[in-house]
Amino acid sequence: MTERDTGSAKVVLGRTLGFLDDPADVGEAESHRFEEQGALVVGPDGRIVWSGGRADLPDDFARLPREDYGAAIVLPGFIDAHVHFPQHRMLAAPGVDLLDWLKRFTFQEEARYADRTHAEAAAEAFLDTLIAHGTTSAAVFSSVHAEATDVLFSAARDRGMALVAGKTMMDRNAPEEVRDEAEQSARDSEALIDRWHGTDRLRYAITPRFAFTSTEAQLAACGALVAAHPDVMLQTHLAESPGEIEEVRRLYPWSKDYTEVYDRFGLLGSRSLFAHGIHLSERECARLHETGSVIVHCPTSNSFLGSGLFDIDHVGDRRRPIRLSVATDIGGGTSYSLLATLGEAYKVARLSGRRLGSLRAFYLATLGNARALGLEAEIGSLEPGRFADLVVLDPCATPVLARRQELSESLADVLFSLMLLGDDRAVRATSVAGERLKGKAP
Ligand code: GUN
Ligand code: ZN
Asked: Which of 172, 211, 212, 204 is nearest to 188 (CA)?
């Protein structure tokens, strides 16, 4: 992996917050490190060299240039564990349910990505929008087109981002313009893996859209790719909506359930991301747990499409916990903001009688998602050696937030107000590998 030299080293000052572990496992007190007067030293290669309290800053770094964000909170950049690049402008398309929404709006919009010029402009807008919302890494579905996927990877490389992405594969139940063919789709994916996986900070994810739009031949080809490239990710959708599950039952009559379809073709595992997982039986949960597979919770999408209420405690059941992450699922999702996404996850949890504390929520959007993507050695925390992919949040960014802070009594409370009331307006700055891509010098 080559590393960019982003220029000179510097010290970033502010209230720093980084997670060390999941509050659900170690308790809230042990889960994070928060410094009211925090400091980070960023090296010339864009990695964090040192982090801690300002008073303990070693003398060696005392003369470096400083960026002082005052009372704003400096966190690892948000990570979006599931987002669709070719849906970047089609938020709020009012489908009746998932399958209706795909047929009426989504496939037509994704067909436009056959045009390279369209894809190029879209990639710039898409990645700039992630940065504007404080998102510095993501697991991304591209369109079915290999060329649009190249364009997306190039644009992410230009920004120095750690992006996981893949060409969507779908060889049935979709219009011809967005359909591929099993063998060709595997060859295209293989070529993209060769070109991009491990280039700079980029990784590849084999991306069958879902069982409904792939033939058994295509899922088998995905299984062969997974076996041949064990360090590549896999991403798809699972058990999102009742109508979809019914279709999968019809198409795969031999399968006990939805999860067994992917299992049969060797697609479960610790590098596999399954979006949604709302309607899962106990058997499916046990199998996802055994294989170390990840469920990606996409609350704004689930509410918008009426897909169902995700049960965070069922997925995390202590007897067979499934690895969990959170995501926007743009454009089924209705906000690019991980803050808004966490706020919606809180509300969805309440609707099923569950709770999601703010510390756990922020853990999920940072270190939790880094672990889900297998990138915790590179991103997701403020520990030395990680890239300085940072988001700076202003808890008083809007008049409503500012008045709310008059009542905030703890870090957890400030975070809670940010996730319920915040969005891109609360993002004062975003940096990738130490380079500020949003915001002015403080
Ligand atoms: N299932 C298959 N494709 C999609 C998609 O584009 N969005 C969502 N939310 N679910 C899907
Ligand atoms: Zn999706």
From this structure: 204
DSSP assignment of 26-94, as one string? Answer: H-HHHHEEEEEEEEEEE-TTSBEEEEEEGGG--GGGTTS-EEEEEEEEEEEPEEEEEEEGGGTT-TT--
Strand partners, 294: 273, 323
Q: Which residue of 102, 276, 302 sits with most ligand 1 atoms within 8 Å of its CB, as the best mutation to test the pocket?
A: 102
Q: How far is the CA of 307 from the centre of ligand 1 (A)?
A: 11
Instruction: Name residues of the chain where pLDDT drops below 70.
Output: 1-7
Nearest 10 degrees: Cα torsion 246, 247, 248, 253:
90
**Closest Cα to atom 3, ligand 1: which residue?**
209
pTM of the prediction?
Answer: 0.98
The string of DSSP letters for 345-387 reads HHHHHHHTT----HHHHHHIIIIIHHHHTT-TTTSSS-STTSB
What does the DSSP 8-state code read for residue 104?
Answer: I
Find out whether 393 and 411 touch, Cβ atoms under 8 Å: no
The enclosing H or E element of 290 equals helix 282-291
**The residue type at 97:** D
Beta-carbon-side half-sphere exposure of residue 175 (alpha carbons within 13 Å): 12
Cα of 353 from ligand 1 centre, angstroms: 26
Q: pLDDT tens digits for 16-65?
A: 999 999 999 999 999 999 999 999 999 999 999 999 999 999 999 989 99
Here the tokens at position 102 are 């795909």
- Ligand 2 centroid from CA 335, angstroms: 13
Domains of the chain from N-terminus onward? 10-77+380-438 (2.30.40.10), 78-336 (3.20.20.140)
Residue 292 · residue 320 · CB < 8 Å:
no
Q: Is the CB of 258 under 6 A from ligand 1?
A: no
Adjacent-strand bridge partners of 12? 40, 67
